[in-house]
């Protein structure tokens, strides 16, 4: 079963555009970045991720997204299906 999450990203001051551009180019062998949006509010960039399981998703965040230059902090929101 696939897992999806929204990763809310705080960027260093003046780095939102650079972070967003870097994330659109980022690839990771265990997860797919489905979308990247630069936003206003308490976060600067929101990224939608999909992976086969939670561990793969976590590795994409810690080994991929959090290593992008200009990323200050991330908050991960897992999606749920309320049937």
Properties at a glance:
83 residues; alpha+beta; four-stranded antiparallel beta sheet; 2 helices; 4 strands; 24% helix
H-E string: EHEEHE
How many β-strand runs?
A: 4
Content of β-strand: 35-45%
Form type = globular
Number of helices: 2
What structural class do the secondary elements suggest? alpha+beta
Low-confidence stretches: none
| N→C terminal distance | 16 Å
Short synopsis of the structure:
With 83 residues, the protein is α+β, with helices and mostly antiparallel strands.
Describe this structure in words.
The protein is of the alpha+beta class and 83 residues long. Helix content is 24%, strand content 39%. The chain has two helices and four strands, in the order βαββαβ. The protein has a four-stranded antiparallel beta sheet. Strand 2 (31-38) and strand 3 (45-51) form a beta hairpin. The longest helix is centred in the N-terminal third of the chain and has 10 residues, at 16-25. The radius of gyration is 12 Å and the shape is globular. The two termini are 16 Å apart. The mean pLDDT is 95.
Which helices and strands occur, and which strands form pairs?
Layout: E1 3-11, H1 16-25, E2 31-38, E3 45-51, H2 54-63, E4 71-78
Antiparallel strand pairs: 1-3, 1-4, 2-3
